[in-house]
Amino acid sequence: MKLRNARTLITGASRGLGRSIAQTFAERGSDVALVARGGDALEALAKELGGKAYPTDLTDPAAVEALIEPIDVLVNNAGLDCVRMFADTSAQEVRDLLQVNLAAPMELCRHVMPRMLSRGRGHIVNVSSMGALSVTPGVTLYGATKAGLSQFTSGLHQELRGTPVATTLVQIGAVKTDMADNIRGFGPTRRAIERYQRWHMLPREDLEPPTVANAIADAVEHERRYVTLPRRVVATAMMTEFPRRLTELTVIGLDMTKYDR
Question: Among 121, 161, 238, 252, which residue has the fewest nearby CB atoms (within 10 Å)?
Answer without folding.
Answer: 252
